[in-house]
From TrEMBL:
Annotated catalysed reactions: D-fructose 6-phosphate + L-glutamine = D-glucosamine 6-phosphate + L-glutamate
Residues the record marks as active site: K358
Protein name (Swiss-Prot/TrEMBL): Glutamine--fructose-6-phosphate aminotransferase [isomerizing]
Enzyme class, UniProt record, top EC level: transferase
Gene Ontology CC entries for this record: cytosol
Subunit text: Homodimer.
Included range, full protein: 244 to 606 of 606
Role of this protein: Catalyzes the first step in hexosamine metabolism, converting fructose-6P into glucosamine-6P using glutamine as a nitrogen source.
Annotated keywords: Aminotransferase, Cytoplasm, Glutamine amidotransferase, Repeat, Transferase
Organism: Pseudooceanicola atlanticus
Length: 363
């Protein structure tokens, strides 16, 4: 049942305020205390975390690296499961291994988990399907509570994965004495306000739909982001290519001048995901480099960011202001809407893109 939407993907994008709200209530109850199930996870006894997944779930892990390292001070390694499983990486008692999977059945991710079982101190997973193999074989499975996701391109599962991974980072920070009660309360308040901000982000749909008509003409699209927004750029590019079949690539903004800037001309839209955070000014200079070469910048930012970027921007999509840590979750929405409407404009099969399966249970 598409609940009045044209595609499951549209329905699932629209459901995000609700399901993310559910996940937040699940892990926080009504106060500001965390309710990570199973008190057993000891974030003090470890010296590193290993995060492994595939595809969109891998980008959720990359985002979590920024959060866990910054908030909890734990070094984090992130890898795609198909590489991790065959590399014979050293894994020991000093590590928590964490696997992220919507389906909980992805063959490579499951194999990576089995490789770590009996080596790592704790096997954690972040899953949407609690009865799945990955959930069952973990010491502790944290549900993302996204509900059934039917569209092949992951949307609400991604933002719910991010939400739960941020909560893991907060719990790790709390245990390690790096999160005082005031800051914790501030973040929890921001999280509780997130569904309302997500609804505001969804209100940009009409603008995004119009923009997507223009994006649908492009052969190639670049996505740029810095810091915790870099994985979001990767996710935006993946979403666009998998459902619209437009070639899209993402780079960390600072990498632009190390190669990809050679691609820039007036035919290449460059989507920049950059809230007005402490790194914003650096991203502005990257945008200027693009514009100086005739590139078309589509800036996704907040009001202050769009104003500060000045003239010369091709198009912009304005996001509400949120606590910095929550920007990756909020900015997932315009990334998904852009991909969705561009694919609709091109007339592709949005819910069932060619060559793709929802659950990849073979290598
Ligand atoms: C992209 C997408 C895939 C999955 C990947 C992992 O939109 O959906 O990249 O994220 O196949 O799947 P799970 O999360 O089920 O392990």
């Amino acid at each position: 049942d598409k609940a009045g939407h044209k595609h499951f993907m549209a329905k699932e994008i629209a459901e995000q305020p609700q399901v993310i709200g559910d996940a937040i209530s699940h892990y926080f109850g009504s106060g500001t205390d965390l309710h990570l199930p199973g008190d057993g996870i000891d974030f003090n006894g470890i010296s590193r975390m290993i995060l492994v997944a595939c595809g969109t779930a891998y980008y959720a892990c990359l985002t979590a690296k920024y959060w866990i390292e910054k908030l909890a001070g734990i070094p984090v390694e992130v890898d795609v499961a198909s590489e991790f499983r065959y590399r014979e990486p050293p894994v020991g008692e000093d590590a928590i291994a964490l696997f992220v999977s919507q389906s909980g059945e992805t063959a490579d991710t499951l194999a990576a988990l089995r490789y770590c079982a009996g080596k790592a101190r704790t096997i954690l997973s972040v899953v949407n399907v609690p009865e799945s193999s990955i959930a069952r074989e973990s010491d502790l499975a944290l549900p993302i509570l996204a509900g059934t996701e039917i569209g092949v391109a992951s949307t609400k599962a991604f933002s719910c994965q991010l939400t739960v991974l941020l909560i893991v980072a907060l719990e790790a920070a709390r245990q390690r004495g790096r999160l005082d009660a005031d800051r914790q309360a501030e973040i929890v308040t921001a999280l509780r306000g997130l569904p309302a901000r997500l609804n505001l982000a969804l209100d940009t749909e009409a603008i995004t739909e119009r923009l997507s008509q223009e994006l649908a003409e492009a052969q190639d699209v670049l996505f740029l982001g810095r810091g915790q927004m870099y994985p979001l750029a990767l996710e935006g590019a993946l979403k666009l290519k998998e459902i619209s079949y437009i070639h899209a690539e993402a780079y960390a903004s600072g990498e632009l001048k190390h190669g990809p800037i050679a691609l820039i001309d007036q035919n290449v839209p460059v989507v920049v995901m950059a809230p007005r955070d402490p790194l914003f000014d650096k991203t502005v200079s990257n945008m200027q480099e693009v514009m100086a070469r005739g590139g078309k910048v589509l800036l996704i930012s907040d009001k202050a960011g769009i104003e500060a970027a000045g003239d010369g921007i091709w198009r912009s999509i304005e996001m509400p202001v949120v606590e910095d840590l929550l920007c990756p979750i909020l900015y997932a929405i315009p990334a998904q809407l852009l991909a969705y409407h561009t694919a609709v404009a091109k007339g592709t099969d949005v819910d069932q893109p060619r060559n793709l399966a929802k659950s990849v249970t073979v290598e």
